[in-house]
Amino acid sequence: MIDNKKTRNLIILVLMIGSLITSLTQTVLTSALPSIMSTFNVDASTAQWLTTVYLLVLGIMIPSTAYLINRFSIKPLFITSMSLFFIGCIISIFAKNFGIMIVSRILQAIGAGIIMQSVQVAMINLYPKEERGKAMGIYGFVVGAAPAIGPLAAGYIIDNLGWRIIFYILASITLVTIVLAFLFLRSIMEVKKTKLEIISLILSTFGFGGILVGVSNIGAYSITHPLTYIPLVVGIVSLILFTIRQLKVKEPLLELRVFKSRNFIISTVLIIIVYTAMTSASLIISIYIQSVRGMSAMVPGIIMLPGSIAMVILSPIAGSILDKYGFRVLAILGCALLGLGTFELSTLTTTKSIAILTIMYAIRMIGITLLLMPVTTWGLNSLKQEEISHGSAINSTVRQISGAIGSSILITIMTAVTRHSTSTSKALAEIEGMNTSFKIASMVILVGLVVSLIYVKDKNKNDEDMDYKQSALG
Question: What is the DSSP string of 131-189?
C-alpha cells in the first residue's frame, strides 16, 4: 500500500481517467447504434453484436487478468491495455463495413477488460479494508460519470457531426492518458513470477465464449439450430472441465476456492441477477425513442442524464454507507428501486410521457448505484488479501457474462414478441416486445430482492474476525 498521499492521488487520477474512457465506449455506443445500423444497413439483432462481442471478449479476457495483475506491474499493464484500446478506436474511425467494426470492438474490449480489472484491484489495494467502500465509491463516481456524459454528448455529436467523431474524441483522450501513465503510475502490488495455466485459459475461452455465442445466436436462429446448441454444449462442457482443473492444478487461472466464503457466494448471485436484468434497458430505450417515437438521438441522452447524475453523486455516499452500516440496507433498497423503475418501463406506449420515463430511469439508476460497487466490495472484503485479485476477476467475469447473456436474452425476447405480435402497426408490435422484455427483467430483480432479504446479513466486527480465522484455518 502506498503511504504518500500525493503519489496515491496521482495514481488514482490516471487510473480513473482510464476507467472513464473505457466506460464511455460502452455508453456512447448505445446512442450511436441506430446510426451505425443505418450506415452499415443492418438490423437491431445484427447491430446488437457490437455490444455482445464487446461483452464476450471481456468475459474471455477477465479470467486471465488475475494472472496478469499478479505477474506484471500496473504501469506496463495499464499502458499496454490503453494502447490496444487506442488502436481499436482508430479502426472504428476508418471502418468501411460491419465486420471491421466488430474487429475494432474486439480490440477495445481486450484493452478495456484488463483496465477494468486492474483498476478495481488497484483501488482495493491502495486503501485499507475499513476504507474500501469509500475507495470503490470513488471508482463508482467515475464510472457513473460515463452514463452521465456519454449518451447526451454522443447524441449531440451524432446529430451534428456523425458517430465516427465519437471515436476521434476517445482516441485523443486515450493518447493523453497513455502519456500521463508514463509520467505518474507507480508499482502498487508485489509482482509474482507465476506461470500462466494455458490449458485453463483455453478451456475458459471455449467455455465462456461458447455460452455467449450460443445465447447470442438464439435471436437470429432458434435453440434447436446447430449454430445455437453446438456452442452452448461446447461452452458448458468446457466450463465443467475448467472448474475441475482449477481445483486440481497448483497455480489455477482462477482460484475457485474463494467460493468457500458465504458472503462472496451471495454477492456473486446478486451480481448475476442485477446484470442480467439491467444491461439491455438503455439500448431498448434508445430504439424506442429513435425508431418508435422518431425523436432525435439526443433525447435518450436527456432521459438518461438525471439518473446518471444521481449515480455520480450517490456512488461515494453508497460507499460510505457500506463502510459504516453494512450492505443489507443497500441491497434491499437497491433491488426495490431497480425493480420499481424497471417495472414502470414495461408500460411503454406510443405517447408515454418523456418526463415519466426520465424519472423511472433515474429511480432505476439509483437502485443500481446502491448495489453495484457495494456488492462487489462486500464480497471481496470477505476474502483474504491474496485472494482478492481472483475474487475480483471472478466477479468481473460474472458481471460481463451475465450482462451479455441477459442482454441477448431480453433483446431476443423483444425481437421474438415483436415478430409474432398481432398488433395493428409496426410501432405497437415493437412496443409490445419492449414491454415484455422489461416485465421479465422485473421478475428477475424480484428474485434479487428475495435473496437480499433472506441471505444478506450485516455482521459485527467479532463475527468478521471469526470468519476470517476460520477461512485461514480452512
Answer: GHHHHHHHHHHHHHHHHHHHHHHHHHHHHHT-THHHHHHHHHHHHHHHHHHHHH----S
* Single-letter residue type at 250: K
Q: Alpha-carbon distance 159 to 427, whole Å?
A: 23
Average pLDDT over residues 56-83: 82
> For residue 219, what pLDDT band results from cuts at 50, 70 and 90?
low
DSSP 408-468: HHHHHHHHHHHHH---SSHHHHHHHHHHHHHHHHHHHHHHHHHHHHHH--PPPHHHHHHHH
| Grid cell at residue 157 | 455529436
Largest CA distance in the chain: 67
The confidence band for 462, taking pLDDT boundaries of 50, 70 and 90, is very low
Rama region for 35: left / alpha / beta (φ>0; ψ in -120 to 50; rest) = alpha
Rounded CA gap, 307 and 285, in Å?
14
DSSP symbol at 258: G
Q: Which residue has the cell 458472503?
A: 263
Tally the C-alpha atoms within 13 A of residue 355's C-alpha that lie toward its C-beta.
Answer: 0
* DSSP one-letter code for 254: S
Confidence of residue 466 (pLDDT cuts 50, 70, 90): very low
Residues contacting 119, CB < 8 A, separation 6+: 15, 16, 18, 19, 139
Residues 6+ apart with CB under 8 A from 9: none
pTM (two decimals): 0.74
Q: Which amino acid appears at position 153 of this protein? A: A
